Structures are given as structure tokens and as C-alpha cells.
Amino acid sequence: MAQMTPAFIAIDWGSTNRRNFVVDEAGCVLRAERDGKGLLSVPSGGFGAEVDAIRSRLGDFPVVLAGMVGSARGWVNVPYLSAPAGIDDLAANLHWVEAGKTAIVPGLADVAGDVMRGEEVQLLGAVAAGLAPSDSLLCQPGTHCKWAHMKDGKIATFSTAMTGELFSLLRDHSLLADFLTGDVRDGVAFRDGVAAGLRGSLATLLFRVRAAALLGGRSVEDSAAYASGVLIGHDVGGARIAPGAKVHVLADAHLGELYAAAIAVAGATAISIDSQAAFLAGMNRIWKASAA
Amino acid sequence: MAQMTPAFIAIDWGSTNRRNFVVDEAGCVLRAERDGKGLLSVPSGGFGAEVDAIRSRLGDFPVVLAGMVGSARGWVNVPYLSAPAGIDDLAANLHWVEAGKTAIVPGLADVAGDVMRGEEVQLLGAVAAGLAPSDSLLCQPGTHCKWAHMKDGKIATFSTAMTGELFSLLRDHSLLADFLTGDVRDGVAFRDGVAAGLRGSLATLLFRVRAAALLGGRSVEDSAAYASGVLIGHDVGGARIAPGAKVHVLADAHLGELYAAAIAVAGATAISIDSQAAFLAGMNRIWKASAA
Questions:
Q1: Contact B163 A234 (CB under 8 A)
Q2: How many CB pairs under 8 A join A and B?
Q3: Mind telling me how many Å the CA of A16 is from chain B's nearest CA?
Q4: CA distances from B18 to A126, B38, B106, B124, B218 (A)
Q5: Is the ipTM of this complex over 0.95?
């Protein structure tokens, strides 16, 4: 068996988490790390030392970084590229911290006034790896859920809904907090919430979570699932998916299942994509294009 | 000049504030107090002593209480009346803590799964005092904004939007917090937000508050006014006001001005109502009906 030769280190560096991958010429992962060293835990001016430490552990290879590490709170505030943008546009606009050695992938801006940092690699990587068609609708649920319309293999337009963050705010700090202690899972309460959220007024539906529990219309155990359904239904409704359309969803199993259910209630079909495979495919394409 | 004879004490007892009024036979206020002794600052079992203290200051008169004091967190959890309900229904269903001496006004429930406690007195009092027609749409902005359709002088249906609470959550705890430090006042940014919020998806528009500031599309100083406009526009849009309709608004001057502007952007007309006059008219009618 041939010895695989490491080509570069790909880092997905977000606000709270970090994933580091040693990737070979074929785009395969030789070694992977995951830790909580998100940029919020790195002191200003400490990013160079962090990357040095990664190289000392994983090997002295070129490093390509994506995510919030390229923001004002990160290492360097790399200017956004404007959508439409493809994988070659990302590669051509890498910000080289050290020429040929350490680069940061730029984020994207949408003309409607939206931004992303990090998700662009996964979205374009999904298409590059053949996990999603060149013309398709992709969804990345999370704290800030991204919806991207792909056209000719590029991100044509995108929008973000702060769905996950709103749920956390309500659960942790609102007058609903006492009513949002139950599990969130797909089921009758969740789908009732989705159906309401697809059409109704969010601020009114959320108030009624508490009212329904007070009036005995819904158990407290079901209220968190219903509220999550309302928020995800609002999110899916805002994406205005064409009836019968396919949505390619990049998410972990739990959130992926909830969005798949909500997308089904909205009359469309969800197709699950492995987001790590999409990220690695994207980073490999960026690396190869930049080294060409 | 004749000496005015006190008839009863009306108390508007909310979660954080309390207002006490000595009212005469004609419904005029002889004496008023306002303090921060909301029910969250009263220990369980301490409400009787609080009312004794009020009587020792203001005189030994019958006391009628309205607001969250009649909730599970208050003195007694008084059952909700179902809408439609008029002022006589409230009077006939007073909860007498002590017969003929101390009574709590019941809150209302809407069949769609909504509740109110305290607002029903203002809404029905506004009609009783001739401040709003018997058939009209009333709006009470605040932490939880109430919209009530009055029919034949009764509250026929109502809904609540957690508009004010969502703004507070975003300003105090969200990733938008750093961008919501400016003043909220009527102006271009506020009205831009209203126009967007009337039609757009709330969770997406809120994310773009931060994106617009990052991209230079809107100053941080204007961002709080825009975000408030988005939330109030979402609220007004959810009320589905008929074009050209009149909305009677019970609010303080600042919030009343913001809602009047948003209602105008939505193509309707706001008419401001003095909420204290409405409350006192409502309590006086309840007192007279109960004593009849």
C-alpha cells in the first residue's frame, strides 16, 4: 500500500468550535482533530501562535482556513466577495497571511444585504463533490440558518434566518422559558408548530405557546417541540420553496430530521448531505485551484 | 364646592408596576399612587398585607384589582372568562377575596388560544367612556402587544404579539446586541424597517440588521430604529388591518407614536386613546355594575 502524502491542512474555524484536517493529494483525510478552540477563546493577536501549534502537532504543511476566523473578531477581517461566486472565485481571492503557506477563505455577501463566512465552502463543496446539482436549493440549519440558491455551480443568492438563535433566546431568557423545558423532536406537536409557522405571524404564535399551556391546550412537555416547529416553519416558509422542489440539507442528524419534516409539511422534499464531506471537497478544490 | 365622597380604590397591579387610584361616585380620581410594587416583588402570601397597607394610606374603601395579580404568580389564580366578553361579564365574574370588600377582575381567553389580564379593563373602558366605538379595532402596544376586535361593545376576539419582549431579548442577549445601541424613534430607518417587516420573514430581516451594519448599508446608530421597525411592522402586518381602517391605540406617547407611524405605513389610521382614562372608566363601570 502506497504511503499517502499530506498536501495541506484544512481548518474550519468558527466562533466556538474548530476542526482541523490533514488532507492528501486525493482529498482524503489522513488525520482529524476537533476542539473547542473557537475564535472567541483566542486572544487578539494569538492566531499565529495557534496555527504554529497546529503545525507542530499535525506537520509543517500549508494551512487553509475558513469560517469566522476571517471576520473582524478573528485573525484578519477578510473582505466579503459578492455573490454570485463559485469555488474558483474563493480560490482566486484567498487572503494570504503568509504567501504560499497560510491562507484564509473569504466570506460572501449577498446584494440583498446578507453575509456568510465558512458556509460558502460547504455549499460549493457539496456541488463540487456531486452531492448536490449545479442548480439547486441548499439549506444549512443552525444558529443562523443559511438558504442558498445554486446556479451553474455558483452560489447565486442566499439568505440567513436567525432561527436557532431565536429559539435559544426564548428558552434561556424569555417569559416562555418555563414552558420550553421539554425535548424537541419530530412528532405531532412539532408538525403542528411547523404548519402554524409556515403561514402565521411569528410574534403572535410564540406568545400563544405559553397561553396554550396555561389554558390546557398543550402540555408543557410538548411546548418546546411546538415552539421549535413554529420557528422552523417560519424559517422554511420564508424560503418560499416551490411546491414539489428538492432541498439539499447540510446538518447533523437531529436538526436534519427536524428540517426534513418541516420541508415535507411545506410540500417539498429534503435530501440529506454529509456536511463534513462537503466541507472537505470544497477545501480541496480551493487548495488545488490556488496551487495551480 | 361639594366634598367628593370616595367610592372605591381601583388597583392596576402588573408584574413590575402598580397603580392605585381612589375613585369617587362620578368616576373621578381623588388620589393616585404609582410604585414599583409589582407582584414579582410581593412574597407569596403577602398580597393581603399589601392591600391592608394601601387601605391604611388611602382609606378603608372597597378595593377592585385588575391585572396579573389575578394570575398563578399573583394573589389568586382567577379563571379566565372566554371572549366574547363585555364589561358586565367582568363585573358579574369578579373574584371576591372578601365579600363586598376586595375583588379581582378576571382575565380573558380567546378561543384561538390567547390570554390577557388587565388589558380587558382598558379595552372595555375605552368603549364605555366613548373613547372608541362599539365596533372597532384596538391596539395596546407593549412587552406583549394586544390587538382586540370590539363588537357591540364587547371584546369579540383578540391576539397578542410578543413584540416588545422580542426587542428586549435581541437588545440584551443576542448577537445583534452590539448593533442595537442607538435610539429608537420614528424616521427613515424605522419606516424602512416597518415596510420590510410588514411583508418579509422576521427571522431573516433580523439577521440582516447586523449584516447591513457590517456591509456599511446602515449605520449602527440607525440599526435599533430599523430593528424596532421590523418588529413593529411584523406585529402590525400580523393584525391584517383592512386598508383605510382606523386603529385606536392605547399607549404612552413614545410607543404610541411608533405604532401610529407603522399603522400609517400599513395604509391605515391610528387614533390615540388615553389609557389611564380608559382604565378608570372600565374600573368604574365594573364597580358600579357589581354594586348594583
A1: no
A2: 112
A3: 13
A4: 58, 5, 17, 20, 40
A5: no
